[in-house]
Protein: DNA primase
Amino acid sequence: MYAEGVAVMAGRIRDEDIALVRERTAIADVISEVVTLKSAGGGNLKGLCPFHDEKSPSFNVSPARNVFYCFGCGVGGDAIKFLMDAEHLSFVESVERLAARAGIQLRYVEDDRSTPRPRPQQGQRQRLVAAHAAATEFYRAQLTTAGARPAREFLAGRGFDRAAAERYGCGFAPDGWDLLTKHLRQQGFTHDELVTGGLSRPARSGSLIDRFRRRLMWPIRDITGDVIGFGARKLFDDDDGPKYLNTPETPIYKKSHVLYGIDQAKREIAKQGKVVVVEGYTDVMACHLADVPTAVATCGTAFGGDHISVLRRVLFDSDERAGEIIFTFDGDAAGQKAALRAFEDDQRFVGRTFIAVSPDNMDPCELRLAKGDLAVRDLVARREPLVDFALRHVISRFDLDTVDGRVEAMRRAAPLVAKIKDREKRPEYVRKLAGDLGMEIEPVQRAVLAAAHGPQAGSAPAAPARSRPASPAVDSPRSMVEREALKLALQEPVLAGPMFDAVEATDYQHPVHVAVRAAVAAAGGASGATGGAVWIERVRDACDDLAGQALIGELAVEPLRIDGEPDPRYVSITMARLQWSSVTGRIRDLKSKIQRINPVSNKDEYFALFGELLSLEQHARALREQAAGGL
Structure:
């Protein structure tokens, strides 16, 4: 649950506008910017959960009801909740972003809900994103000035014309202490916003100065396309700073999560099931322009676990569809070391990992400049499995003409073979390693088996999933019928509402199901609901049971147990079976009670109970006939 109408500055968003945002937001469009979604049948979609690591997709989206739910970690809700969890936004920031996306003008009221007021100050994230967008335009305009000639020459010298510079938003930070700062302050951004966003920094004098000066600038965008930071390349010899300078960690820029070029590459990555990981901004540009549109790069940090999580969601890297991850590292010592680090992360991917190294040790940008676009495409096409590269690199460090060298090489290489995800490939690599070492296969096999059972072969542990609230058992027939009835109320209230509401809450047995049934009633009943995310959130808000809240999200996306669309007959059968289970239980209790009564000394009670039993059995027969055909 999350609070609605949260106070912002002096007012709150009107409830009607929040409901309108929910109704007009296509949740699949919002989530597909972060997670690649595939058809899951019944109109639902599925993908890899962005909130916990998993190998098989358990994250479900229901476009018809505008809700999502992960059966792996129990997180669920509507598009507002998704943005809150995925982007770490407040409720109000999420509503405002979705409203802007849908073209909805939000109205705000005072705390007493009296007079509507103009839009208040935006949330922090929106303000920082807006500041970065303004900075991007400022830097782009500066690229055409006389002082930016070294920046233009740098781009041209690497094969990038004006159109390429504009496509990637390249710019120039001018030679002035506070030109950007003054420009942004004039646009209404505050001292604290510029410092918090990493665009400006305090000088020794106490005044505010620009963080970037006299550098070629690349805007760094998140997966949705918002500019959240900058990469700045040194151009002048008298610049004492590092070759590349990046935005520091800020509320919107987390370098361990950011991949340069992901906003432009994500659709092709999802389409091709392939990603090419390069080392720099110019390499991404070169690959994209050479028709390798799946290239991305890290931003001032090593490729790590958070980057892997982002790529796996975009790749749909799962047991159902293993992707390809291709690393392009320089052939020098640093590049080889980076490649071996990448192999350590291989276990985190379901898909296959490869490496592409230019024979001339050139990066993609240099290769394109020297030999053209075709050479870049060939570099990627000639990739080799990362394990082959890693084994060759390890073996090359030892003198295989000596016994000690061969044995030591075997000891170092065996753990790499033991880490190969595809167990069926391990015997082949054992034979290959034995051949490369010039040794018999048996000692190599023993070394690999020993490594597989030792600590060296352990893969990096997956990030722990969020603790999932206890959910009701689904294996008993009665529980399944109760779930189906609740799903109909949540997913199809217009169709099922009257029949659902007519069945008493006492016909539900499981305590969590009872809590959800009570929440439906507290939300006004299913009969008057129109469905969708607004209805589901109303029921969730009316439920004061934590397990019930989690179950509501689950049932909102769980497919109904019917092929095709539900109809009134299906609803009637479901509700009849629900009541029949309850009635037969009461019949058993009555029969047990009657057997314990002495009909002579308790004649009145005996005949009263017997009459009730006959009535219940008649009712049960009618329900059984109504439920004929089964679920």
Observations:
- The chain has five domains: 12-121, 125-246, 262-382, 397-457, 477-626.
- The longest strand covers residues 227-234.
- Confidence is low (pLDDT under 50) at residues 3-10, 116-121, 455-474.
